[in-house]
Design a protein that fits this description.
Layout: H1 9-17, H2 23-41, E1 44-47, H3 50-65, E2 77-81, H4 108-115, E3 119-124, H5 158-165, E4 171-176, H6 182-188, E5 191-193, E6 214-219, H7 222-232, E7 262-265, H8 276-291, E8 295-298, H9 307-322, H10 341-352, H11 355-368, H12 373-397
Parallel strand pairs: 2-3, 2-4, 7-8
Antiparallel strand pairs: 1-3, 4-6, 5-6
Helix pairs in contact: 2-3, 5-6, 9-11, 9-12
């Protein structure tokens, strides 16, 4: 029973369509697996009310029985990273400063899932405000890798990736600023998609670095990740950075012939510090692509050495600006030290934020300061444009 959510999503959906399993059974299996294993794994910060979840699953079963299901997601449990608003559940961002925050609205991505019948089962652990790559900077939990609890699941969407990898849920949402969907997906052996910026609305996603953040999807197979992306993609009037109208079916294209497609890889990624087994697996992946009919070319990209510095300057600058709203006045944690406004502000932020967040705020304030703005932040923005144009050129010529 507990292993139901380990079934490849495409097969699980086929079973639901053929009447071999009910939505209620899937939701109950997910809840059972969470009760049984999450104490050791630490994937969930909060789980929705079980009776309400089972009620929603029963309503989905009635729709399926009458042929009026809302979509292929109808009745399927979906976990949501805890920086994405979902009414009825706290949105903590893995931080003490938002420990009791209840959002008054749903993120657009969550709204779309609910309108298609998807069931939000709970909120997953994450690095505090998505700042980290191991899920260890959370104020609440240290999520474990489902394949080896002595290892990390990656981050910052480690809770979502580990929940899917462990078979606690078949589908999950995460967010990606600089690899926070892709890296934990790799660590936990699941499929993770970081969409093109602007394809999925960021409305209701708590900002880390606004020009980089994006909501992505997890599943235990490519089909599930693509189907969930189909559900949440598309333009949104509530998000000025929502750029694209969805005009294609991602899941439907999975079985199309790959012959004639082109791909490139950068040898600089396989340099110093990469474990031999990782290099070997990477080579095997290239050979697998070639065997499927895809042309794979090696393209040198020496400018990649600037990518990490560029990312950190931009991300921390935007983070310091975005996190200034947490002042202990409007919402979130407020310190008991309140002799005056300055003391309340300082103590609330000092007690509410963790070390990693404080470090990035300090760095962000530094690169935005009057004496260093042009030297650091300005140059980083120019490098960002240069790297973008270089990538466009490489892909155009591939």
């Amino acid at each position: 029973m507990d292993d139901v959510c380990k079934i490849k999503f495409r097969d699980l959906l086929k079973m639901r369509k053929e009447g071999k399993i009910t939505c209620e059974a899937i939701v109950k299996a997910s809840l059972s697996a969470i009760r049984k294993y999450d104490g050791a794994l630490g994937c969930f910060i909060s789980v929705a009310d079980e009776s309400e979840l089972i009620k929603l699953a029963g309503e989905s079963d009635k729709r399926w029985a009458s042929g009026k299901q809302l979509s292929d997601l109808d009745g399927m449990p979906v976990a949501v990273k805890d920086n994405i608003h979902s009414m009825g559940l706290h949105t903590t961002c893995g931080s003490k400063i938002l420990g009791s925050y209840n959002p008054p609205y749903n993120a657009t991505a969550v709204d779309k899932i609910k309108k298609l019948g998807g069931i939000i089962i709970g909120k997953t652990n994450m690095d505090e405000f998505a700042m980290g790559s191991t899920s260890e900077t959370s104020a609440y939990l240290n999520t474990k890798n489902p394949y080896n609890t002595e290892r990390v699941p990656g981050g910052s969407s480690g809770g979502s990736a580990a929940a899917v990898g462990a078979g606690l849920v078949p589908l999950a949402l995460g967010s990606d600023t600089g690899g926070s969907v892709r890296q934990p997906a790799s660590f936990c052996g699941v499929t993770g998609i970081k969409p093109t910026y602007g394809l999925v609305s960021r409305f209701g996603l708590v900002a880390y670095a606004s020009s980089l953040d994006q909501i992505g999807t997890f599943s235990n197979d490519v089909y599930g990740a693509a189907l969930l992306l189909d559900a949440i993609a598309g333009s949104d009037g509530s998000d000025s950075t929502s750029l694209y109208d969805k005009n294609e079916d991602f899941a439907a294209k999975i079985d199309t012939d790959t012959k004639g497609l082109k791909a490139v890889y950068f040898p600089e990624f396989m340099g110093e510090g990469i474990a031999p087994e990782i290099k070997e697996n990477f080579k095997n992946s290239i050979e697998a692509l070639k065997k499927s009919g895809i042309t794979v070319n090696e393209v040198k990209f020496p400018e990649l050495k600037y990518v990490i510095a560029t990312y950190y300057f931009i991300a921390t600058a935007e983070a310091s600006s975005n996190l200034s709203r947490y002042d202990g006045v409007k919402y979130g944690y407020r310190s008991d030290k309140q002799k005056n406004y300055d003391e309340m502000l300082l103590s609330s932020r000092s007690e509410g934020f963790g070390k990693e967040v404080k470090k990035r705020i300090i760095l962000g304030n530094f690169v935005l300061s009057s004496g260093y703005y042009d030297e650091y932040y300005g140059k980083a923005q120019k490098l960002r444009t240069f790297i973008m144009k270089k990538m466009q050129s490489i892909l155009k010529d591939a």
